[in-house]
User: Which sequence fits this backbone?
């Protein structure tokens, strides 16, 4: 009996499941922990996404800068609008980066994809950001007043009195609160825009992701600061490349930590 007619012969067909496509975004039940050196990997893997679409990236960044500048011209309301719409613009750009990772070209209208596809949850995230930052200011202000009440009673408050209250304890409280807030929102826009995670759940998952990856995130922040400084040197023109790179690397870091 030849091998071709042997009914007991193992099948020759390749039954190995195909690899997940680049655009696959199946969310892990819990964020994974990665090595500190992953920060370099995030930047190196994201650079081709920027390089292959550099012209469109520069246009998106220029328009985003103009929008932020115009909103900044309106006192108070401009700041509110910036906080509300920030996640919407960022979410749209991240949706564009996902398309680039899947082999598609980046389009200028990806800047506004968040308005078309995820407006309600991303606006909700922006509102929550605004509320938490307001609460952050209230708590910090309350701590400041409480720590200096004895010194300020019975006399007019001068700028020197206020500056004298900026002691080490107050600065430490502010830094701790700021880190806590950053951890809540670091991955929240990615979670909402790319995986439809509910807003409040996205804060919890973002916090867990940061808590499990302190070293790579700190290393990444150091690299980001260095890139921003270098990008700002040539009359800020380098930021037209650095900012897109940061968007793309935030997408890559999200995939490495949260996606199967």
Assistant:
């Amino acid at each position: 009996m030849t091998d071709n007619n042997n009914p007991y012969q193992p099948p020759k067909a390749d039954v190995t499941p195909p690899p997940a496509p680049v655009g696959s975004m199946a969310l892990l039940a819990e964020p994974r922990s990665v090595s500190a050196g992953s920060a370099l990997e995030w930047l190196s893997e994201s650079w081709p996404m920027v390089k292959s679409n550099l012209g469109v990236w520069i246009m998106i960044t220029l328009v985003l800068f103009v929008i932020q500048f115009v909103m900044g011209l309106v006192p108070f309301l401009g700041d509110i609008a910036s906080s509300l719409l920030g996640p919407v613009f960022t979410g749209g750009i991240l949706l564009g980066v996902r398309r680039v990772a899947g082999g598609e070209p980046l389009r200028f209208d990806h800047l506004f994809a968040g308005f078309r596809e995820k407006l309600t949850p991303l606006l909700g995230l922006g509102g929550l950001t605004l509320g938490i930052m307001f609460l952050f200011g209230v708590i910090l202000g309350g701590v400041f007043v409480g720590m200096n009440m004895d010194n300020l009673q019975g006399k007019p408050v001068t700028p020197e009195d206020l500056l004298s209250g900026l002691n080490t304890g107050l600065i430490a409280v502010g830094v701790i609160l700021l880190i806590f807030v950053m951890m809540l929102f670091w991955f929240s826009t990615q979670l909402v825009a790319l995986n439809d995670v509910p807003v409040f759940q996205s804060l919890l998952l973002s916090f867990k992701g940061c808590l499990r990856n302190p070293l790579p995130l700190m290393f990444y922040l150091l690299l980001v600061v260095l890139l921003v400084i270098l990008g700002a040197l040539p009359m800020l023109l380098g930021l037209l490349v650095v900012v897109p790179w940061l968007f793309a690397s935030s997408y890559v870091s999200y995939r490495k930590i949260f996606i199967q």
The first helix runs from residue 38 to 51. The chain has eleven helices and no strands. Residues 14-22 have pLDDT under 50 and may be disordered.
